[in-house]
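Apologies for my clumsy wording, but could you write out the amino acids of a protein and the tokens describing how it folds?
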Amino acid sequence: MRETGRGHVLPLAPLHAVMSFNILAIGQAGRLEHEAILLAASLRLSDPGFAGTLFVAEPQPGPRWQGDPRMSDRTRGVLTGLGARILPFETRAFGSDYPHGNKIEALSALPDAPFLFLDTDTLVTGPLSAIPFDFTRPSASMRRENTWPGVELYGPTLRETWAALYDRFGLDFAASWDTTHPDDYWQRYLYFNAGWFFHDSPRAFGSRFLAWATTIRDTPPEALVCQELYPWLDQITLPLVIHSFGGGRPGADLVALDGSATCHYRTLPLLYAREGDRAVAVLETLADDLRPVLRNWGAWMRMVIRGEGATARALFDRANLPRREQMIRNTLKREGLWVR
């Protein structure tokens, strides 16, 4: 066992077989560069035997951006000191209008080796290198809600909307169904949170991801005419790409993702409100070391350093949380504890 400076006790990471792969996250000016530091530090703490490379991909200035999206020199230095590599990439399809597209366009800049993409607002809480990935069968996070598609009273059904997309790209729609759910129920159809996904070739995966996402954006099937594509475009396209490469829903071998090995916390107030004790312990173990480099991140100073996270945590029973994230957000906002 290891005692931390804040009274938390973390178990030592177990010995495990080392699996080599790369991790990709996005670093960008503002909140994301602070989150990238936290991600890199948590990886170093929770998986000291990680044999791959953490690439923090950084979009470069260009006509797609309203300002300079690059991180500060100081942040780059901190990330490099934590073992990360800065990976510049050009933005040609998305940019300021849809920064979620960074995760799609950055894939082409990665070395062509097995990869795991992690949203930057992710905390590593256990050894990722102990997870028995099958990189030839891609998958993604099932920690999602029924966010897309919306159903109009006289419009296409859920089934018809998804079928139009599978037909557009020549995919076997029925082969993707979870038949334990009834027809036209949202969980019957393949839908992921794009907070993590993996494959054995970022170039092949990224090329198809980009081509199909821009096709859906520029020439959507008729069934999508009334649908909002932003901010959901990455999550609309991702299940199609995963299915096309022979992947699907994650099995029991991947339970540590969104479990004991990662925590996609979204915001620090949400982390304190709903996540397990392990995530909080990892976060606060890093607090003293990261305080100097994260002092300009308002959410970090309020939630972690000033202790407002504990106040947010006391508002909720984690064994009986509200069913929808929005209800948690509303409570935090009402109590003046919502900050990003």
Remarks:
- Confidence is low (pLDDT under 50) at residues 1-5, 11-17.
- The longest strand covers residues 193-199.
